[in-house]
What does this fold into?
Amino acid sequence: MPQKAHTEAAEHHEKAAKSHRAAAEHHGKGDHAEGHKHSTEAHGHADKAKEHSTKAHGKSAENHK
It folds into this structure.
């Protein structure tokens, strides 16, 4: 079970990174509206990644008792 939680956390970290890169690219081109959109997406994925990371950490600890 901890593997699934870690995998879900990793997937959200990857999505957040992709959105951050897209935001940086758009901001660099002066397209701040699109950059803001991607930045908002990145923030949402980062929140989900933290949630899944916390869950994964707890499940890992349960398995070491």
Notes: The chain has a mean pLDDT of 91. Helices lie at 2-28, 32-63. The chain has two helices and no strands.
